[in-house]
Amino acid sequence: MGIIEVIVLGIIQGLTEFLPISSSGHLVLFNKLFGITEGTVTFSIAVHIATLVAVVSVLWKDVLEMIKKPTGKLTLLVIVATIPMGIVGFIFKDLLKSFLETGVTVGFGFLITGTVLWLAEYMSKKENKNKRLEETSFLDALFVGCAQVIAMLPAVSRSGSTTGGALFRGLNREFALKFSFLMSIPAILGPAAIEAIDVIKDGSGLGVEFFPLIAGMLAAGISGYLAIKFMLKIFTKASLKVFSYYVYTLGVLVLIDQFITKIFFK
């Protein structure tokens, strides 16, 4: 991967990790567009670590509070919400990895994301429970965690599915988004650590030059930081339906290429 490619991919990763439009789906599309096949695993680990830093940088007060109170309610809610992903990831690791490499589910994944976002907005206005931390139950957290499992499929947005799941359960919009971002810490850290171990065991090297890799990480970290700040600012006022229109359109275009034109998905 060249310097321009890694910067573009880093920006894409940072933005789409926290906007509800799927980072995995966009990375698959841009890898296809650039014809990239080498070093994708190493790059994925690097940019995910960069976005992890972005989350901690913005929500450092909450993260510090969780560290100080490892048995506090917020910490336990995040742990409970992470359990379903850990179980499914352990059992179906190889299958999920093959989906990511081939991109076979990408078109449908974008459509699933659009549907989740649309339904979440509808249900949030219908329920209007406005739960905050004190009112949020462990059953709520488990439901949001199950919604995160769906996002293990490429092009299903993790932030979209978890935020959508939180709104389904009547969580306050601001707390729903913050909870989704805090859930991203173990969701990013766990798979990145496993991928790093696999790369070390494989012994095939980085596959990406050091300085382009650093450039990609900086691009991902900065764009991720801006995306988080943007979502925290507009989420209480903006509708998720805006993002659903985008991913619906993208999903249809991908399916057309996968089944008809076969330009990128051959």
From TrEMBL:
Mark the transmembrane ranges.
41-60, 72-92, 104-124, 175-194, 206-228, 243-265
Transmembrane helix recorded as keyword = yes
One GO biological-process annotation of the entry reads: peptidoglycan biosynthetic process
Q: Where in the cell is it found?
A: Cell membrane
Reactions that this protein is recorded to catalyse: di-trans,octa-cis-undecaprenyl diphosphate + H2O = di-trans,octa-cis-undecaprenyl phosphate + phosphate + H(+)
Gene Ontology CC terms, in alphabetical order = plasma membrane
Q: Which UniProt keywords apply?
A: Antibiotic resistance, Cell membrane, Cell shape, Cell wall biogenesis/degradation, Hydrolase, Membrane, Peptidoglycan synthesis, Transmembrane, Transmembrane helix
EC number of this enzyme = 3.6.1.27
EC category: hydrolase
An MF annotation (GO) of this entry: undecaprenyl-diphosphatase activity
Annotated membrane topology is: Multi-pass membrane protein
Which Pfam families does this entry report, sorted A to Z?
BacA
Q: What does the protein in this record do?
A: Catalyzes the dephosphorylation of undecaprenyl diphosphate (UPP). Confers resistance to bacitracin.
The family line of this record is: Belongs to the UppP family.
Q: Could you share any additional remarks the record makes about this protein? A: Bacitracin is thought to be involved in the inhibition of peptidoglycan synthesis by sequestering undecaprenyl diphosphate, thereby reducing the pool of lipid carrier available.
Q: What is this protein called?
A: Undecaprenyl-diphosphatase
